[in-house]
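Quick one, tokens below. Sequence please?
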């Protein structure tokens, strides 16, 4: 089989000045995509800004013989999202791929989680993906082609202490992914998400000796595949870390059926309600509704 290439494709990677985004940008560029390397260049908590990181990654791409431009707008505003997409149009005339990767952390236990720690995290992760994707969506619909990869996290999918802001934003991205997959279907726009595990500046204090096994470069292959024109799926979420790739999914148990349901019935059948035997994975709301009506007979 031929190698996977991106010739003729234009990709925007947000937060690509370091860590996972840099790795995604280098790989797509190496395989022929023209890349907008977006990065605000701030610190982990989102404060500050710098032209440096995005420009350095562009230099790295050019040194490999690739084609890229730097962009330092913030994803966190509608104007920033529009400007990032405009820089792809200005430099390369189109946009085919958006990888929403930019992120910040403001961790605190929930009782200390003041609104000033919530808002910026929602703004960068959840609204940032919304703003950048929405600006690109218009073009993608018109050209009847698009690939979007959102960066979720196991902190949202599974929960993690001290990350109520981040976890909510990251699970919000799963909802955004599901809805955009449905809306993009008839325009050949595929929207998927990843939940990465990698040693970067964001996680360097957390991983100890295991960090060496969790190279960002081992997350990038699933991102590249989800960005490719042959990508066979939409609306899905993939776990990726250290070379282990797996799929997260939302499962629905067979549950308990009683058209005259009372609270006592729920108490008395709670284990059956929770029992994972024979669970299903509904693709959409209609699948769930069909199951409900089937069970009602
Ligand atoms: P990182 O801190 O190296 O990368 C995030 C990048 O986003 C930084 O370069 C930063 O300057 C940029 N950024 C922040 N705010 C921005 C804004 N408003 N506009 C444009 N760029 C902005 O960290 P890492 O680990 O590479 O994170 C990448 C993504 O992966 C993030 O969304 C993160 O939440 C997510 N993630 C990472 C995990 C890991 O194990 N490293 C685990 C789960 C999720």
């Amino acid at each position: 089989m031929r190698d996977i290439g991106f010739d003729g494709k234009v990709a925007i990677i947000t937060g690509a000045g370091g860590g996972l985004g840099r790795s995604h940008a280098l790989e797509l560029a190496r395989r022929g995509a023209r890349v907008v390397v977006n990065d605000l260049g701030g610190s982990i908590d989102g404060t500050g800004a710098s032209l440096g990181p995005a420009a350095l990654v562009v230099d790295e791409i050019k040194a490999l013989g690739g084609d890229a431009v730097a962009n330092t707008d913030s994803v966190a505003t509608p104007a920033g999202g529009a400007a990032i997409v405009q820089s792809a149009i200005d430099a390369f005339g189109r946009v085919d791929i958006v990888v929403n990767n930019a992120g910040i952390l403001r961790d605190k236990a929930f009782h200390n989680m003041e609104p000033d720690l919530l808002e910026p995290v929602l703004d960068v992760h959840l609204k940032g993906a919304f703003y950048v994707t929405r600006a690109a969506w218009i073009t993608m619909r018109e050209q009847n082609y698009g690939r979007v990869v959102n960066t979720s996290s196991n902190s949202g999918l599974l929960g993690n202490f001290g990350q109520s802001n981040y976890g909510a934003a990251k699970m919000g991205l799963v909802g955004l992914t599901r809805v955009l997959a449905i809306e993009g279907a008839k325009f050949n726009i595929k929207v998927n998400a990843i939940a990465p595990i990698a040693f970067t500046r964001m996680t360097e204090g957390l991983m100890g000796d295991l960090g060496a096994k969790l190279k960002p470069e081992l997350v990038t292959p699933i991102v590249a595949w989800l960005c490719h024109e042959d990508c066979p799926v939409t609306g899905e979420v993939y776990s990726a870390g250290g070379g282990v790739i797996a799929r997260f999914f939302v499962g629905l148990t067979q549950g308990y059926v009683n058209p005259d349901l009372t609270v006592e019935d729920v108490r008395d059948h709670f284990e059956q309600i929770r029992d994972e035997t024979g669970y299903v994975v509904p693709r959409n709301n209609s699948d769930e509704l069909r199951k409900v009506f089937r069970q009602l007979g």
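The chain is about 40% helix and 15% strand. The chain has two domains: 10-248, 263-296.
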